Amino acid sequence: MQIRKLKNLRGEICVPGDKSISHRAVMFGALSHGETRIRHFLTGADCLSTISCFSSMGIEILQEKDQVLVKGKGLHGLSAPRDVLNVGNSGTTMRLISGILSGQDFTSSLTGDASIQKRPMKRVIDPLRQMGADITSVPGNGCAPLLINGRPLHGIHYTSPVASAQVKSCVLLAGLYADGLTSVTEPVLSRNHTEIMLQYFGAEVDSAGTTASIRPEPTLVGRDVLVPGDISSAAYFIAAGLLIPNSEILLKNVGINPTRDGFLRVCRAMGADITLLNEVREGEPTADLLVRTSPLRGTVVEGDIIPTLIDELPMVAVMAAFAEGTTIIRDASELRVKESDRIRVMTENLQKMGVDITEQPDGMIIHGGAPVHGAVVDSCKDHRVAMSLAVAGGICDGVLTIHDGDCVNISYPEFYQDLYSLSEP
Ligand code: S3P
């Protein structure tokens, strides 16, 4: 993929549906009685992997563009898959399904692509085993493929060492099949889409501070779900709109759940002009975001805000390169175990583009203002790296060539078209 400098961005755009919410709508729809209709579903490869896994377990799922109909069969309606379940590149699919599969009365195995086979699964294996699950890492290194012999589970209170919505959701989903209350306490609150949506489907979920708990064996009932625009996808356009001179763009109906809005807070701390319009605060909060070109200054991103913008940190690193002064990102070692090691990969790529950036064990230090130029960079097949670099390529001088730029397909198949559609010819 080759990216050239973009002219001012103007106009409106509706970013694709939220990835986390799209996954959950399919999963919870499958475990409910009756039909779940999903609108503005994300048709990226990750969410299609979730559909394919539940189809393999006997759930009828009809998809036409971004509309999905899930014909749920209740908590105990899944059937044993004939084959290994393949989650592709999707950590959310693998970790959340592990919780569901642990409580079934059949055996299943889960695998995925080269990236997913390197990502830590011990973080879900440990709590699931405490619940009595029979789950094993087949290679014995705490990674996938996983083999799960479904069996009766116990309710536990789990204190998670990491702030991870995937771990929390995995344990809560296993808790649907447990013999008593299951709760999870995390060090910092992670995204709470599971809690919000499970309650909407009829589960008894309580949230207090950083603890969420669930009662077993609810009767879940299929619902209509309108998926908000994904703030993680909106982040690329927000950054481009702020940095490309003379831009003004409106991003329609973006999710602004407070457990996901850290990117907006960081943008504002950097001096961004972003106005929220048409705010809706019930269920999953949403707003239209009006973004205007703004001079940016460096900032420090650390502590409790990190889980609320974890997927946007590659974009923050790029913004910092074009900002005045120094930006420090710390407490973000989780970035090393995402689809790629995003600290290393972003540092190496941005250095090739002339950026003054240094890698830290848990983050990056970026001195903004150095001239940024085109180069040949490698997404390492990580969609968020590819899109963050593409924005950098749209701002810097010269041509940016991104290896494996088509991996945007994981979360945003129309990303490049949407980016160019906003740029004046
Ligand atoms: C997700 C949680 C986050 C995030 C991922 C999606 C989810 O991962 O990075 O893109 O849908 O629950 P962790 O739970 O590993 O932090």
Sum up the overall morphology in one term.
Answer: globular
Termini, distance in Å? 19 Å
| Number of domain modules | 2
Structural class: alpha/beta
Strand tally is 23
Number of helices: 12
Identify the CATH class of the largest domain.
Alpha Beta
As laid out across the biggest beta sheet, the strand order is: 2-15-17-16
> Approximately how much beta-strand content do the residues carry?
15-25%
Assembly annotation: single chain
Small molecules bound in the structure, each named once: shikimate-3-phosphate
Low-confidence stretches: none
CATH homologous superfamily placement of the largest domain? Enolpyruvate transferase domain
> Can you tell me the CATH architecture of the largest domain?
Alpha-beta prism
Overall pLDDT level = 98
Question: What fold name stands as the CATH topology of the largest domain?
Answer: UDP-n-acetylglucosamine1-carboxyvinyl-transferase, Chain
In a few lines, what is going on in this structure?
With 425 residues, this protein is of the alpha/beta class. Helix content is 30%, strand content 24%.
